[in-house]
Specification:
alpha/beta; globular; 24 strands; 4-stranded parallel beta sheet
Length: about 375
């Protein structure tokens, strides 16, 4: 049986290894490598910040990921040789017949001067944990939610942060003493769906949240408590909640397989320019948003391609870039947007207004994946 090496146990790596295990059972020879302790849904970072959750409540330990034919190794990747399909980690060397890179996107703090010093981002688990201790002490002044570059993971997340922060301040009775400003480099909160963007803008207007579109945070001055936009405008802040600029992990860039900070792939197949090497999820340039549901969808296509090649599986389908993103509208309301990027001549985004049904669907989304990957 062919040796398959998967780097990264996020949405893409977990789904791909699960698919291969389901099809091949103990006959599979799959190695899944990740340096982390466990998997955390992206939306759980907002639970850490605003809902009083602890990391152990939201983390799904990799020790509980047990699949026939799959080894999950907690190791740190230190070098990748795509042509040889050889990967070096802090524990040794792994060689494979097929290599799938699913290491996600890292944060480039150096790209935004002052961002590391202000140390106030909410896109990592550690950052969300830290802000969970800071937000309760914010009771007056301006809160600035600022995106430092595009593309970035889960495009609706900064909008959700603004609305949930508004909820938090209203609960504490200090909203009138606070301003909330949200800066995003896109022309609208969710560009693929004008309906979704309009709904979010309506919420911002109703709640008095200032939205600045088409701008990014270019630098931060921690001493003056000022953020500088890419048009040199300055915004003072008392609380900064940042979204760092993203790029592929340094070890992927050093492998020579990236262009402009990400791994280019054929959007239909997820194949890279190196035969037998694929990339899925946030690490890749695949013509879809950087979000877990799209990494999962890409992984299913790669699984089909591998099974067709090594196990006489059915002919693989084309990657269509379809998925649903759930959006917190605050006050316990959840909506969603169904996005289709690659199946038609134009990308589309259908908005589903907040409802009890959407809340139930989001809960099912998480529950299904917890059960499928971790048996919970």
């Amino acid at each position: 049986m062919a040796r398959i090496l998967i780097l990264g146990a996020g949405f893409g790596g977990l789904e791909l290894s699960t698919k291969l295990s389901e099809a091949l059972g103990d006959e599979a020879e799959v190695t899944l490598i990740d340096k982390g302790e466990g998997f955390v849904f992206g939306y759980s970072k907002l639970d850490l910040m605003f809902n009083g959750k602890g990391v152990e409540e939201v983390r799904l330990p990799y020790a509980e990921f047990v699949m026939p034919g799959v080894r999950l190794l907690r190791e740190t990747v230190t070098a990748i040789d795509p042509a040889a399909k050889r990967v070096t980690t802090d524990a040794g060397v792994h060689e494979a017949d097929y290599l799938v890179i699913a290491l996600g996107a890292d944060y480039d703090f150096a790209a935004t001067p002052g961002l590391a010093e202000v140390d106030s981002e909410f896109y990592s688990v550690a950052g969300a944990e830290k802000l969970a201790k800071v937000i309760p002490d914010f009771s007056s002044g301006r809160a600035l939610i600022g995106v430092c570059g595009a593309p970035f993971k889960c495009p609706p997340a900064p909008s959700e942060c603004a609305l949930l922060l508004d909820d938090e301040l209203r609960r504490r009775g200090v909203r009138e003493d606070c301003e909330i400003t949200f800066v995003i480099p896109f022309g609208s909160p969710v560009p693929p769906s004008p309906e979704t963007s309009a709904a979010l803008k309506g919420e911002f207007e109703q709640r008095g949240i200032e939205l600045i579109t088409g701008r990014r945070i270019a630098s931060v001055d921690p001493a003056r408590r000022v953020a500088v936009l890419d048009d040199d405008a300055e915004l003072p802040f008392d609380l900064f909640l940042g979204v760092p600029k993203h790029r592929a992990p340094e070890v992927v860039i050093e492998s020579g397989i990236t262009e402009d900070g990400y791994v280019p792939v054929d959007p239909a197949t997820l194949a890279t320019k190196v035969p037998g090497v694929y990339a899925v999820g946030d690490v890749a340039t695949a013509g879809v948003p950087k979000a877990g549901v799209f990494a999962e969808g890409a992984a299913k296509i790669v699984a089909q391609r591998l099974l067709a090649e090594i196990a006489d599986g059915a002919a693989p389908e084309r990657h269509l870039g379809q998925g649903t993103c759930y959006i917190e509208f605050g006050e316990g309301r959840i909506g969603s947007v169904d996005i289709d990027f690659l199946s038609g001549p134009e990308r589309t985004g259908h908005f589903n207004a907040p409802s009890a049904e959407q809340m139930a669907l989001k809960e099912k989304f998480g529950a299904d994946r917890r059960a499928r990957w971790f048996g919970r």
